[in-house]
Write a structure and sequence with these properties.
Blueprint lengths: L15 H9 L8 E5 L5 H8 L3 E5 L3 H11 L7
Parallel strand pairs: 1-2
Amino acid sequence: MIKEISKRKGMLFPDVYITRSFFKYGLNKKIGRVVEYGCGAANNLILFKSFGWEVSGFDYSSKEVENANYNLGNDNLSQ
């Protein structure tokens, strides 16, 4: 389960351009899979997951992977 915004670690909000494109191209009305390399604390992936998408992410920083897994409520992301 995705953590409430007040309980998240790292960056809290998705990138503004990702958010604009997500809604502009109707991705909020579709379900699919997304992979993000350099996902940080998963702030972009949270947007996709909250609309039912299957998400995967990778990051070089083990701390960011830890934050991302915490924020997404799972252990699916890798370093």
